[in-house]
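Q: Predict the assembly, please.
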Amino acid sequence: MFKRLAGFMVLFHALTAWAGEPDVTEIIEKANRAAYYAGKDGRADVAMKIDDGKGNIRERAFTILRLNTGEVDQRFYVYFKAPADVRKMAYLVWKNPGREDDRWLWLPALNLVKRIAPGDKRTSFVGSDFVYEDVSGRDLAADHHELVETTDTQYVVENTPKKPDEVEFSSYKVWIDKDTFLPRKAEYRDKSGKLYRRVEALAVTDVDGYPTVTESRVQDLVTGGSTLNAFSNISYDLGLVDKIFTERFLRRPPREIR
Amino acid sequence: MKTLLTDFSLKHPWWIFSLVLLATAGLALQFPKVHFDNDPENMLRADEPIRLYHHEVKERFSLYDFVIVGIVNEDHEDGIFNVETLGRIDDLTGQLLSLEPTDRGEIRVTTPSRGDRAAQTATLDLNPSDLFHRLLNVAFRHNPNRLFDEEGHSAIVGRELIAPGVVDNLKQAELGALKLEYLMERPPRTRAEALTIRDDAMGNPLYRGTLVSEDGMAICLYIPISEKTFSYNVANLVETLTADWPASDQVHITGLPVAEDTFGVEMLVQMATSAPMAGLAIFLLLLLFFRRLSLIIAPMVVAVISIVCTMGLLIGLGFDVHIMSSMIAIFLMPIAVADSVHILSEFFDTYHRFQDKAKTVRSVVGHLFMPMLYTSLTTMAGFGSLAFTPIPPVRVFGAHVAFGVGLAWLLTMTLIPAYIMVFVPAKSLANLQPTGLAHAPGPMARFLERFGRISYRHWKGILTATALLLAVAAFGISRINVNDNPVKWFTEDHAIRTADRVLNHHFGGTYTAYLTLTAPESSQVNAETVAADVTERIRDRLSLIFPDAVGQFLGDIQATLRTHGHDASALLDALGPKAAAIDAQLAGGWDLLADEINYLDPEGLDRSGLKRVVAGLTGVDPAITATLFSEIERVDPAEGADLQDTALEICDTFTERRFSQVLAECRTAWFAPAFKRPEVLRYVEDLQRHLAEHPLVGKTTSAVDALKKASFELNYRQPGAEAPHPAPANETYFAVPNTVEAVGQVFTQLEGMKKKDSLFHLVTRDYRMANLWVQLKSGDNQDMEAVVTAVADYMAAHPAPDGLVSDWAGLTYLNVVWQEKMVNGMMTSLASSFVVVLLMMIVLFRSPLFGLLSMIPLTVTISLIYGLIGLVGKDYDMPVAVLSALTLGLSIDFAIHFLQRGREMTRQRGSWKAAVAEMFREPATAISRNAVTISIGFTPLLFAPLVPYRTVGFFLATIMAVSWVATLFILAALSRGLERWLYPAQNVPAEPEPSNRKEKCHV
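A: Predicted assembly structure:
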């Protein structure tokens, strides 16, 4: 009986795939690649505006370098250019999906490289409304995924964490463009089911053949605060080498940053 | 004219009944609209600058009012830091954060899962179990389950909760890494884990003395609430959630909002019990004095109607019932009763002469009209004067008591006659015998007669004694302590007082005030000053190495100053490209070289390999390469990574010497916001150090504490770990970093902590305003004031850099401000009503001397009462301040009655000597009854659990006693002493009136 049912399920899945509708695993895989893995490597200048919802705006400018080092492993280099007091400050992240990331911090005014112990990836990224996971991507295996709606242009995927104790949300929904597979919007619900956070890709353009988000925003629906990222000078496949994602290059930033 | 109202009432009693009933019913119908306000903040007008500032500070720093829950374990060897208690605290934290309404408006909390235990969800009902309190809650429309706003959001602002499980901690982890996590990431499973949490908390200046007690026995949770009015219910919720905790884990709940809100709720209970009890006591006393039920019912009805109408009016006009106005009933009761008792008492005494109700009433009213009008008017003046104080609730109170007194007078003039016409059967009056002299004198009468004789014989002694007492009172008044503390409104053994004591013993203090330091808006930076600074730095740093370039650049500075001299920022902008050009020329080669070396693979790198690479570089001056290699020879590193590092370090010594670097430093030094500047932060540090020595300050917390902790943890090197250079001791890093850049970079780490934005409770996002969280061990105004003075003195002696301006906010400070206003307001109102009453008395007696004389008892009473308060060290607080108005109103009544009757009798008898014996019979008895009634009537207040009610009860009794003695003794003694001026040419007895009582009495 079980066998027969299982067989039926396989057949059912095969049929839906054959009918042209990708299944949810495929959608989120593709979305993940589109959002975080475009090209072999990439760079972008980011202008960040953090609005606390009361009219106070803080601005930061930094450059991001990214290199795909394996099927899923990646390295990130974040170099600050403004405001003046944090100029030359840098972060280095080795993203290791499935296990803890490695992180380093360079504080030039203290002449200090400090390793940051693995911890919560859902902490604020430099005081903005983005969390580290927004910047480097959330491990696909951390959530259950369900395709809840398919519109003419988008797939809507509902995600629930496998370990709800480790995150502050109870679920989040992602709207993924059918043509580019770029996630355009994500909405997070808190433990009591209320909507409290929204991440959006406000503008998308084609750069070197890759659909690329050039403006993104996070809104904190509780405090009214938001953070806007504007990306410029974007390029892909620069030929970055992995040695620049090391401690040595924290003290002396790589050429690609300048 | 005098009896116009009364005549109408005698003719149309039912008209009066209907009118009174209609008015009372109409005003009583306002009762359901009642809204209570127990917020002392409302002692200040809503647009009072300090209140506006307080809210601005709360808004800017995202501060909330806190319900403080202290958990104390004095039994366990590790104090509070044991596995079980920390587990319970974690449960409570989870429960508080999970608070949500069910669809049916009930409360749902979820206890988080722990170990094998799954998460549990429970629905709570916080309604009291006993019927009495349930009924009270219904009557006063208090819903204990109100823990959500209209949109269903929790009363608890979860993201701002301060508890071990949700506050950030920075600590060292393996491999010299820095760990960002919550102080109690998960409840401990072993003793070692529990003790680690203790050590982490103790090592963090933000938490030691605030979140955890320094003795390790207590932890405080600070529960932020969206509105102060939630605090009682939140406290109640915590009590319910911790009800099953073992006795060793004591739970104490405190904080000003809880104290204030609890007071409000208990105030309602008092209103529902104290006022009726006082009414009952007065009723029983009257019954004892007059032994005639029909006589007493009417005054009680007058009192009740006056109170109902006054409260109805207050509610109907849209005023909130405040701590003050809750006492209206208690203040009105004696005043309203007094007038009507006078009328009825006289009515029954004189009825036998007229044998006609209407005629008797006309005679009595005709006779008492003036003194009663004046006693009412003076009382109204006393309370009415409160309407001119700057404190809104006191104004409302004063105006409404004045209204109530006026109403009571009107009712006495109309309702009492109507009552007599309809409800007192003529038959029951037929056998009335004149009271008083016909009977054998009772103990009170005998006592009073002796009083009278003493007052006549020993008048000089009495006046001397009075003068002596007044001198003592003056001394007492000089020692009066203006002080209040809402927590002290509760009696010593109240749970809130206990919590206050216990928690202030273990912690830095539960009373919070915010000291803000603000840098002035845009302080204009002088371009010449900046130019001079740039010049000096360039000379210091670069003139030895690049003398030519320095000379050129200094010329550039002067030239640019001439063109951009108006704006320092533009000056630096203009110098930027020039510096960059010089840098490219001087360090460009080194940059290229270093870059190239940086990208080399250290694996197998040796000096010849390095030479090959360098030689192939274009754009690098051979002199530079030569310098590099001579330096390498000198240092003599090993091959590989060591060689590469050495080469880079050599390059660094040249690339660091940049003109643009100096310019960048100048820019941050001159344009960085105040609270990124080391000198400003060190000033704050010194101020905090100074405050820490103040005995009243338990603890201060600022962004500087957070900065120092973060600097320490970032710079920390594990002992024995390999260091590139000889490292200074770790402790030296527990300090404000030396440059603006270093401060900015450390602060940036704090901005991105796990609990987002917690730094911004202490400094604004633009770093131009800082908030020092000052914890006091006492909420007394005086103590707060002492700390305010200490800060002002310090800042005067040590002028702040950057022209920082200090200011205060916080509930503890707010109380100081309204106290100050209250004292000054009461002084003015007392003085002005004194003058008004004096003028009224001069008009009433048509004699300045009598007018002055009538003011003596109340002057003596007020002096003695406040002298007593000063001597025994009782704080001059809100109820005490208001008592002066009551004294004025009640004391003058005795004097009016005494002097009016004294004058009449002296006129009849021919001399004061002859009148004095008479005076100490019936008039003195009436005054004494009145005094005793009021004093005894308020004894129920002495058993109230709220101190202001007790104070009022005690002082009412004292005021009555002192006024009574002052009237009978001092006025009599003065009448004797001033007889010549008071009663000149009174040798001929006045023509006996037809109503001459003495004659009739002997019929």
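Residues 22-257 of chain A form a domain with the outer membrane lipoprotein receptor (LolB), chain A fold (CATH 2.50.20.10). The two ends of chain A are 65 Å apart (CA to CA).
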